[in-house]
Amino acid sequence: MCILHLVQTVAAPFFMILQAAKLIGAGLSxxxxxxxxxxxxxxxSSLVAATARNPSLGKQLFIYTILGFAxxxxxxxxxLMMAFLILFGS
Length: 90
What we know:
By secondary structure, the protein is mostly helical. It has a domain at 47-90. Helices cover 91% and strands 0% of the residues. The model has no long low-confidence stretch (mean pLDDT 87).
């Protein structure tokens, strides 16, 4: 009975520290979402500026903008996926 009590008192803080580390890691991995939001804003502001300079290239610039948006959004999804893997992984 004494050994079981000793194991419980030693293991409980370890699991609490592990859970805290998971939460901190998941929070840090979501920083990429803020960077992705800034990146998407830069992509579309560049589209507006470039279209204002040369309106005849608007359609071609829009295609490049959608490509930039997709790549920037993929980084955010990777960061979100890492957060979920940290939280809910074994």
